[in-house]
Amino acid sequence: MATLSIQERKRLRQIGHALNPVVMLGDKGLTESVVEELNRALNDHELIKVKIAGEDREARTATITEIAETTGAEVVQTIGKIALLYKKAAKQNQKLSNLVRHAHLSN
Fold it and tell me: Is the model's pLDDT at 101 over the cut of 80?
């Protein structure tokens, strides 16, 4: 997987700033149903925020890494318990993609 350029990361962070988390991970961690939901959200929106519960920073970091590896997404940014993830959709959903919606807003 190609890593994002600095410009791409910056643009994704700007778009992600206004987003709310769409997936929340609890104490059970990365279950099969959570992975399905993450894949669906990434497929629909391309850019999503995920909130990870727990006070252990290392455990959260490990979970975020696991999410990225499992879903094939790129971690754009992590602030506290929130991770911003990006995965280019095979077929972009014009109505749901946060990237498309942001492009329309900024025009």
Answer: no
> What's the whole-model pTM score?
0.89
Residues 6+ away with beta carbon under 8 Å from 63: 25, 29, 30, 52, 54
Short-list 86, 12, 80, 76, CA closest to 48: 86
Domain-wise residue ranges, the chain: 6-105
Percent of the chain residues topping a pLDDT of 70: 94
Above pLDDT 90, what percent of the chain?
A: 68
CATH topology for the 6-105 domain: Translation Initiation Factor IF3 (3.30.110)
CB proximity list for 38: less than 8 A, separation 6 or greater: 23, 48, 50, 67, 70, 71, 73, 85
Cα 30 to Cα 66: distance, rounded to the nearest angstrom: 8
Distance of CA 94 to the CA centre of its chain: 18
